[in-house]
Design a protein that fits this description.
about 250 residues, disordered N terminus, five-stranded antiparallel β-sheet, alpha+beta, 2 domains, seven-stranded mixed β-sheet, signal, Ice-binding_C, PEP-CTERM sorting domain-containing protein
């Protein structure tokens, strides 16, 4: 005797297949933050030559990243030279916030805009994300920057003009960036003095401070969606055949 086909009975099978496929196909590609630079832009949108980067020993002042603001034990990069370089894994989808410090001594920030370049997967001559914000603003609007800018090897590079960077099925998007000078009372991380010009140690001069946040997501690619749909269709056909034989 034939029984009526029950789509409700098939739904758990389809749901399990769909979830399993999505979990397998939405895993992120290898993605690492391998460099960062912070630099000044004048009111006309032109990089004017001051800034810091995460490559030690190249003549430029150093940029130091931390996982916790004002906590000297949370430096991601440190010292001068090789230890100043970055190789921060961002492969797992999620939100990542980095705090940074630069030494205020010897620099007179004369401009109204701050720029940021982020470099990924060892492509350290080509920024993947470039942005600018108003200087000394608590919650600034972040905009893409596409002009000449500071690299991480002591020279200038063309900015990416993008807030997002993609590799394979993984996309990283910059959602926040702030920079404050050491004299601004609104700066959330203005004290204490944590770094010097070329070392991650106090030197008696107050720091510039800031932070940036990136969001990483991974989605199935078009071919993977097609494979999942085909698999679900096959499961449905097998279920119908089984019901027809009863």
């Amino acid at each position: 005797m034939k029984t009526a086909f029950s789509f409700a009975k098939l739904m758990p099978v389809i749901a399990a297949a769909a979830c399993g496929t999505l979990m397998n196909t939405a895993s992120a590609e290898a993605l690492s933050l391998t460099g960062a630079s912070v630099y000044d832009i004048n009111a006309g949108g032109v990089y004017v030559g001051n800034g810091w980067d995460t490559t030690g020993g190249n003549g430029a002042a150093n940029l130091y990243l931390l996982t916790t603001p004002n906590d000297a034990s949370s430096f991601i990069n440190s010292g001068n030279g090789a230890t100043t370089s970055l190789n921060q894994d961002l492969s797992n989808p999620g939100s990542y916030t980095f705090y940074f410090r630069t030494d205020g001594g010897g620099f007179n920030w004369p401009t109204s805009l701050a720029g940021l370049n982020l470099f990924f997967n060892g492509a350290n001559n080509t920024p993947g994300v470039s942005a600018y914000v108003p200087f000394n603003v608590v919650h600034p609007a972040v905009a893409a920057f596409g002009g000449n800018s500071l690299g991480i090897n002591g020279g200038d590079v063309q900015a990416a003009n993008s807030l997002s960077f993609s590799v394979g099925n993984t996309t990283l998007t910059l959602s926040n960036f702030t920079l404050f000078d050491y004299a601004n009372p609104a700066a959330p991380n203005a004290v204490p003095d944590l770094v010097g010009v070329f070392n991650s140690a106090p030197n008696g001069l107050a720091d510039y401070s800031g932070s940036f946040t990136v969001n990483v997501s991974a989605v199935p690619e078009p071919g993977q969606w097609a494979m999942m749909a085909g698999g679900i269709g096959l499961l449905a056909a097998m279920r119908r055949r089984k019901q027809a034989k009863q």
